[in-house]
Amino acid sequence: MTSSRPIVIIGAGIIGLTTAVRLVESEGFDSSEHPVHILADHLPNDPLDAYYASTIAGAHHLSFAADEDVNQRKWDSRTFQVMHDEWKNGGEKTGLMLLKQTEFYVGTDNHLKIYEEHPEFTVLDQSTLSNSIDHSISFTSLTMTPAVYLNRLLRRLEGKVQIHRYHLSSLTNLNHSSCTALIGISSPLAVFVCAGIGALTLGGVEDQDVFPTRGQVVKLKAPWIRSGWTRQVGSLDGGEGGERTYIIPRPDGDVIVGGTREQGDWYPYPRPETTTDILRRAREIFPEIIPPYSVHSDTLSPLDEIVEGVLVGFRPSRVGGIRLEVGEDLYLGNEKVTVIHNYGHGGAGWQSCWGTAEDAVDTLLKALS
Ligand SMILES: Cc1cc2nc3c(=O)[nH]c(=O)nc-3n(C[C@H](O)[C@H](O)[C@H](O)COP(=O)(O)OP(=O)(O)OC[C@H]3O[C@@H](n4cnc5c(N)ncnc54)[C@H](O)[C@@H]3O)c2cc1C
Ligand SMILES: *[C@@H]1O[C@H](CO)[C@@H](O)[C@H](O)[C@H]1NC(C)=O
């Protein structure tokens, strides 16, 4: 290893930030030997933007990992374990909320095996369910408040990582003077690509398998909701198929209800008819979402008075799933730069972040040794 060559992480979403934490906290890592820099277009306290998925997400831990998908199951389980420990030690100020999660299935009587690993996993007695539900389970899970959680990661990186707002148009621009002004003139030892949907356009990556899965959600103020509810209509189809309706409470009393999954749809603003449809579905799966104090609950939309906003984001989906591997070597001048990809988390970036961050850092350490 050449002394003081920096390590660069592209992206400051949940994937870039957890990758940075695992790198600087990994045993024997010395950031004075290899200064760590994050370069990102978007940073956690920016106004919400559809292109910055991490700040739009619900988010809950509700895996989509197919029973035979060993890697995804491992990443998701590991992340649950890490976050569960954080919640146990720090409570809800971590931005995490522990709750009872109930899943309703329509048109399918199958649940994913991974849910059986959660605490308090139970198959509900069919006779207690409404006629429209074919199968139901409940278990303990977690929800995350993105702004709170991302800011805690920023604090954990303070003094160890330098974070720069910078748009990198291409990996080969890492030696451009506008970039070396930030990261220094020694060419990087390694680069982690944690660019989410940006991996589609970032030069030197331009992964044509990356595509947006648009999601629209509604934020309500409903502090009386302290449990999670999901209805899956039709098969998940090995991933994220079918229609899903969800209710995701947060410690601060905000509740995210959703949602949609529109593949290839780049429309970055809310669609009013979608908002109406989401609110209707949310009431169907959990009528208690209607304010207990509502004086006109027989009108068309008793939820209107608690709507705080409507959010739209692009999940960074990828044909074939997450890309976590060593990329083609990059040469800047005569120096070889190791490239590690960690992007394409689709609708599962929050619930798989720690698992993929640990794998990405291990992948780098192996590639360098
Ligand atoms: C409505 C909705 C609900 C969701 N719900 C859940 C959920 O319940 N559970 C769950 O696990 N996941 C959920 N997700 C998915 C989750 O949000 C994503 O998987 C996750 O945020 C991806 O994180 P990321 O860091 O890869 O991408 P992002 O958060 O999009 O971050 C990408 C980063 O890369 C930067 N970047 C990109 N290109 C460049 C460039 N060329 N130069 C410099 N910087 C660049 C960006 O500025 C940004 O900082 C949801 C998503 C949406 C939209
Ligand atoms: C950056 O690296 C590329 C690829 O080796 C090289 O062609 C280019 O001249 C370098 N630019 C600078 C400013 O050093």
TrEMBL record:
Q: Does the keyword Oxidoreductase apply?
A: yes
Q: Which residues form the FAD dependent oxidoreductase domain?
A: 7-362
**Which SUPFAM superfamilies does the annotation name?**
FAD-linked reductases, C-terminal domain, Nucleotide-binding domain
Record InterPro entries: D-amino_acid_oxidase_CS (IPR006181), DAO (IPR023209), FAD-dep_OxRdtase (IPR006076)
Protein name per Swiss-Prot or TrEMBL: D-aspartate oxidase
Q: Which PROSITE patterns match?
A: DAO
What are the GO BP annotations of this UniProt entry? D-amino acid catabolic process
- Pfam families xrefs: DAO (PF01266)
Signal peptide boundaries: 1-20
UniProt record similarity statement: Belongs to the DAMOX/DASOX family.
Record's keyword terms, sorted = FAD, Flavoprotein, Oxidoreductase, Signal
- GO (cellular component) term, any one: cytoplasm
Molecular-function GO term, any one: FAD binding
* Cofactor(s) recorded in Swiss-Prot or TrEMBL: FAD
